[in-house]
Structures are given as structure tokens and as C-alpha cells.
Design goal:
The complex is a heterodimer of chains A (about 260) and B (about 400). Chain A has helices at about 5-10, 30-40, 60-70, 75-85, 100-105, 110-120, 130-145, 160-165, 190-200, 215-225, 235-240, 245-255, and strands at about 15-20, 45-50, 95-100, 120-125, 145-150, 150, 170-175, 205-210, 230. Chain A is α/β, with parallel strands linked by helices and about 260 residues long. In chain A, helix 2 packs parallel to helix 4 and helix 2 (about 30-40) packs parallel to helix 12 (about 245-255). Chain B is α/β, with parallel strands linked by helices and about 400 residues long. In chain B, the strands form four sheets. A six-stranded mixed sheet of chain B has the order 3-4-14-9-10-13, with helices on both faces. In chain B, strands 7-6-5-8 form a four-stranded parallel sheet, sandwiched between helices. In chain B, strands 1-2 form a two-stranded antiparallel ribbon. The chains are: A alpha/beta (about 260), B alpha/beta (about 400).
Chain lengths: ~260, ~400
């Protein structure tokens, strides 16, 4: 079977919208209906966060969602069961993103096997060292048809971007600024030069731009420089304040992906 | 047996650099340059000069006569409590700020639990005229008010960490976030032998002056550099790393690390990482970590804020794993009792961290001529409130 992520990027080159949210937030069993609403509203990729007690790369919004999810009783085993449920009705790519420690405790190999079995297409483990992936896990990812996505930032050297590109299947996650998640503001000249550099490097993988994407305007501007963009904190804020998840999610996603594009 | 870090930053299975990509350039810059900088002659000269004239090194190795009688052994105290700012922490902050200068950094950030590392960092920033931001858990800021004000007097900005449990590990998270957001002009002075490679090795090297001095001082005192035992408390483990460093390959020297058992190892309120932890990843390295079955980090407990950390440095995890260092623990009660005992026997009120090392002496049967060195990592001034509340003196 083909991987849903590689299939998507093979056919769609622009305006891919990937949406991140934390599993078990705002309520333990919201993970499934949120995914269903995202797929129904036209999101292209679903990224589900595995909550962790010490999310160092995340800003306040996602930190708080991690805490709520853990207080709700979220864990890896339950998340994999929820993904299997989502897969009964949803056919767009699903990515799990999380810090390494909960995955290590579950067992990295067991996690790869069980995630693939549940219908996961890719993983993002931001604190997994590149060499550890290359030496210990890459073969296993490939054997189980899972994509692995690495992050790069404006301070990542060109040499290292090449090495990351070579180790990547699917897409690269281009962090838009040297920052934790949730940072805001217009793109600076420096950031535009960074996106330009990435495009000129002619990488073998496409890239999505993340961090600081919050609405239609920032999505459009980011998507113009890559294959699309990732929305996280802004979507978490929506979930936190929503009283009608399916309707609010639909409105939010449609507001970003105008009907003509869907 | 090799106890040194390998070129990827591992001690056996522990260590490494488990960091998000946004931190990679900062950490890589440090990794690629720290050994060269540490070997530069002008660095050595400046470091040695500041340790001697500013910190007050070498610190005495004091033969504690009355404590020796009480323990039925020959007990020496390595007086790190006499360092400027009151603890060994300043050995590391001096070293790191000199590295930061040579990396061209203009700003310094640090995390602190009890405030000792924060004070030691604020001190060297004042000395070098560099901007200093210290992250401290909001709960710890309330518990350690005088140290907060000490940092402010020294010109540092103290930022409360309000995430998670609002203690040391959360202050560390916040400092790492700050570094992610300020990657080029800022150096992060980590206070213990924790964090991504090269921090554990770099901090251990700066603290190794402790055992370097112990060797020459023992040579003078007893005619050879080798004690039978070295005792040190372990939170993250920087004073223990320094006290053990130059004895690691002398296998006949018994090295004893003392963890904080809090209310008791099985009480649910403890910080005894080797007894309760499993391998895991936190703050950039793979080490022993107190965590739930699901891999969520457990908030530790100790009466001593400096030992109140859910992990230990990867070097210590390895030394525990291979059996080179014996790990024991002392409860709050035992540590407080030992601290007061030292006050009565020797006229020295130790930091409650160091009192844990003293408390463990009771758990050993020494021969009368055994030479025992206890690393007295800090003085008790900062803990006066806790001693007063404890009351039993």
C-alpha cells in the first residue's frame, strides 16, 4: 500500500494545509471527532500531538494543552486506539508528533509497529537525534511504510539541511523562525531569504512551513513559499474556546482554504 | 573501564544530545568549540586566576577531628562551602562565562532551583558586565526569597517559570525556550552536569578542580592522594562529578553518591533517582529519570531544593549502571539531623544538600584508619529558614 503522505505530495504541490492538535484535548475523547471534522472540512493532513509533561519546544498555548490532556488521562496506548477509530472514516494522512520520552517508554520499535497498524502515515519526533534515526530506526520506518519528518529552522546549516533531506521520506517541516511554537508576526526579510534558499536548494522533499501560522492571511503568505503550511497554536486556541467543535472547526478550516481551492 | 564521555557525548548508554532542531546550532557551536577554548592558554590563565583570587581557591581540606571520633574514621571535609557565593556552583559559572565571552555572546541565561546557581550566575555576569536573565520556578521564588533578592541586587532579571509544577525542571524548560527564541547572542549557563552534550562534560571539567585539589591536599596531609571513600550529594550531580572526577580510574577509592530520599524512598515524596528512575530523555540527554509508566516526568520531592530534580546527570547514570559509584540515599530527617550535628561538632552549618552526604556516613562501617572525604558542597546560610522551621536543635 502506498503511504498517504507521499501520495498527497505526489499529486498536490501547493497550498497543503496540515493541522496540529493535542490528543485528548480539550476532552479525552475529542481526538476522534476533531480528526473527523478536520477531514470533512478540507484539511489535507492531520497532525496529532502526543502530550508530554515537559514540552520544551512549545510555547504557552501548546504547553497548556499538553497539561490538560495529561490531566484528562491521555497516553500513547489510548491515542493509538483513537487513531484506529479515526481510520475507519478518515482517509487523509495522519501524523503523530511528540517528544521522545513517552515513545521510548512505550518502546520505539513497538510504537513504530503499532502506529503503522493503527493507520498512522508518519511521525515527527523533534528531539530524536538525526544519527539515532539513521542508525537505529530508518530501516524500521521504511519496513513499516512510515514517513519520518525532521524539523529545520532558519539557523540550520545548508549541509545539515542536505543530510536531513536525504534521511526524509515525505516532507520537511520548515520552522519559520527561531522560536518556540505560537510565535506571531509578519515574515521578515531574513525569513523570506530562508524560504528562498530552501526553494533554490532543490531538495528531494517538499517542505511545509510551520510556527506562527494562525489564519488565512498568514497561511497564504507561508504557503506561497512552500508546498503549504502547518497550523497549530491557533487551532488549539479555537478548540479551547469552542462550544460546538464540528461547526467551529469547519468554519476555521474553510476560512483558511477558500472553497475554490478545495 | 572508560568513564569519559565519547565523541558523541555518551557515557555508556547515557548522554547524547536529544534536542529539537531549533537548539541544534547553539549546542553544536558550543560542542565544536568548548574543548579548544578550555585548552587555550589565556583561558586557563583567566580561569585559574579568578578561581584563586575571586572564588578563594584552593578551598581547605579540613580534618574534622570531632566528626572523625563520632564516625570512628579519619574524616576530612572539602570546604566548597567557603567558595565565594557559598557553594561549588561558582566554579562552573566562572568557567562558562569565560567560554561565553570567547563565543562572542552578549547575554547570559540560567535556570535555578534553590537559587544558588542563579546567584552564582548573576555574580559572574556582574563581574563581566553581561546581561543576565535567570529563570526560577514561581514556587521556588516564594520559598527562596532571599536568593531572589540577591540575584536582583547583583543586577540580574529573575523571571518566574509559571508552567508545570513551577519548580526547577520547569525553570529549565523556560530557559531552553528562551534559548530557542534567542539563538545567536545568548549563552545558556546550565548549572549541573545535565543537559545535552557537551554540557555534562564541560560542567564536570569545571568542577573537577575539587578532586584535583583533594589529591594534592591529601598528599600533603596523609602522604598519598588516595582516600578510602569520597562522599558527595547528588541532585543533578555537579559537586559529585567534581569530587569524583580525578578518582574515577583509581578503582580502590570508594565513591559514594547520596541522593535525597525525601520522606522515604517508597513514600511517593522522594528525589532518589537511581532507586526510582528508569532510562529516559529529559532536558536534552538520555539518563535515569523519575517518570510514570507512560513516560511523563514525575515531580520529585526533597526538603533540599538543590536535590529536588527528577533526573541525574548522564555521567552519574553510567557510573551507577557500571557500579563504579555506590548510590545511597538519606531522608529529610537524616539530613537535617546530620546538618545540626556538624554544627555542634565542628562549628560548621552545612547546606541541607551537603548534609545529605554527611548523613550517609552512618550507613557505613569504617575501619578506624579509613580516610573519608566528604564534599561539603555549600554552606547553610541560605537554609536558615528551613533549619529554624525544623526546630530540633
Amino acid at each position: 500500500m502506498k503511504n498517504r503522505i507521499t501520495s498527497l505530495f505526489a499529486t498536490t504541490k501547493k497550498d497543503i494545509l496540515s493541522v496540529f492538535y493535542t490528543a485528548g484535548f480539550p476532552n479525552l475523547h475529542d481526538t476522534v471527532p476533531i480528526a473527523e471534522a478536520l477531514a470533512a472540512s478540507g484539511a489535507d493532513i492531520i497532525e496529532i500531538g502526543i502530550p508530554f509533561s515537559d514540552p520544551v519546544a512549545d510555547g504557552p498555548t501548546i504547553q497548556q494543552s499538553n497539561k490538560v490532556a495529561l490531566d484528562n488521562g491521555m497516553n500513547v496506548k489510548l491515542l493509538l486506539a483513537q487513531v484506529a477509530t479515526i481510520r475507519q472514516t478518515v482517509n487523509i494522512p495522519i501524523i503523530l508528533m511528540g517528544y521522545l520520552n513517552p515513545v521510548i517508554q512505550y518502546g520505539v520499535e513497538r510504537f513504530i509497529v503499532d502506529a503503522a497498524k493503527a493507520g498512522v502515515d508518519g511521525l515527527i519526533l523533534p528531539d530524536m537525534p538525526l544519527y539515532e534515526y539513521e542508525e537505529q530506526y530508518q530501516a524500521l520506518f521504511e519496513q513499516h511504510n512510515l514517513c519520518n519528518t525532521f524539523l529545520i529552522s532558519p539557523t540550520t546549516s545548508e549541509e545539515r539541511i542536505r543530510r536531513i533531506d536525504a534521511a526524509t521520506q515525505g516532507f520537511i517541516y520548515a520552522v519559520s523562525a527561531s522560536s518556540t511554537t505560537g510565535a506571531k508576526g509578519d515574515f521578515t526579510g531574513e525569513q523570506l531569504a530562508y524560504f528562498d534558499k530552501l526553494n533554490k536548494m532543490k531538495l528531494s522533499n517538499p517542505f511545509l512551513i510551520g510556527f506562527g501560522i494562525s489564519n488565512r492571511d498568514t497561511f497564504d503568505r507561508a504557503a506561497a513559499h512552500g508546498a503549504g503550511a502547518i497550523i497549530g497554536s491557533a487551532f488549539i486556541n479555537l478548540l479551547r474556546s469552542s462550544t460546538n467543535l464540528p461547526a467551529d472547526i469547519r468554519q476555521f478550516i474553510e476560512g483558511i482554504k477558500q472553497p475554490s481551492r478545495v | 573501564m572508560n568513564y569519559s564521555v565519547d565523541d558523541r557525548g555518551y557515557y555508556g548508554q547515557f548522554g547524547g544530545a536529544y534536542i529539537p532542531e531549533m537548539l541544534y546550532p547553539n549546542v553544536e557551536e558550543l560542542r565544536s568549540r568548548y574543548l579548544d577554548i578550555l585548552q587555550q592558554e589565556d583561558f586557563r590563565r583567566e580561569f585559574d586566576d579568578l578561581l584563586r583570587h575571586y572564588v578563594g581557591r584552593p578551598t581547605p581540606l579540613y580534618f574534622a577531628k570531632r566528626l572523625s571520633e563520632a564516625c570512628n574514621a579519619q574524616v576530612f571535609l572539602k570546604r566548597e562551602d567557603l567558595c565565594h557565593t557559598g557553594a561549588h556552583k561558582v566554579n562552573n559559572t566562572i568557567g562558562q562565562i569565560l567560554v561565553a565571552k570567547r563565543l562572542g555572546k552578549q547575554k547570559i541565561i540560567a535556570e535555578t532551583g534553590a537559587g544558588q546557581h542563579g546567584v552564582a550566575t548573576a555574580t559572574v555576569c556582574a563581574l563581566m558586565g553581561m546581561e543576565c536573565i535567570v529563570y526560577m520556578g514561581q514556587v521556588d521564588m516564594e520559598r527562596q526569597r532571599p536568593n531572589v533578592e540577591r540575584m536582583r541586587i547583583l543586577g540580574a532579571t529573575v523571571v518566574p517559570a509559571v508552567s508545570g509544577s513551577m519548580t526547577l525542571k520547569d525553570a529549565t524548560n523556560e530557559a531552553m525556550r528562551h534559548w530557542i527564541n534567542n539563538p545567536t547572542d545568548t549563552h545558556y549557563i546550565i548549572g549541573s552536569v545535565v543537559g545535552p552534550h557537551p554540557y555534562p562534560d564541560m560542567v564536570a571539567r569545571f568542577q573537577s578542580v575539587i578532586s584535583e585539589e583533594m589529591r594534592s591536599q591529601l598528599q600533603e596531609a596523609i602522604g598519598n592522594p588516595f582516600p578510602d571513600y569520597v562522599f558527595a550529594c547528588v541532585g543533578g550531580g555537579s559537586n559529585a562529578a567534581g569530587a569524583f572526577y580525578h578518582y574515577l580510574n583509581d578503582e580502590h577509592v570508594n565513591l559514594v553518591a547520596v541522593e535525597a530520599a525525601g520522606h522515604g524512598i517508597n513514600s511517593g515524596e522522594s528525589a532518589a533517582t537511581t532507586a526510582l528512575g528508569k532510562p529516559g530523555v529529559l532536558h536534552g540527554s538520555k539518563t535515569l529519570l523519575m517518570q510514570t509508566e507512560d513516560g511523563q516526568v514525575i515531580e520529585p520531592y526533597s526538603i533540599s531544593a538543590g536535590l529536588d530534580y527528577p533526573g541525574i546527570g548522564p555521567m552519574h547514570a553510567h557510573l551507577f549502571d557500571v557500579g563504579r559509584v555506590k548510590f545511597v540515599s538519606a531522608t529529610d530527617d537524616e539530613a537535617m539531623t546530620a546538618g545540626i550535628m556538624l554544627g555542634r561538632l565542628e562549628g560548621i552549618i552545612p547546606a541541607i544538600e551537603s548534609a545529605h552526604a554527611l548523613a550517609a556516613l552512618k550507613q557505613f562501617e569504617f575501619a578506624p584508619d579509613d580516610v573519608v572525604v566528604v564534599n561539603l558542597s555549600g554552606r547553610g546560610d541560605k537554609d536558615l529558614e528551613t533549619y529554624i522551621r525544623w526546630g530540633k536543635y
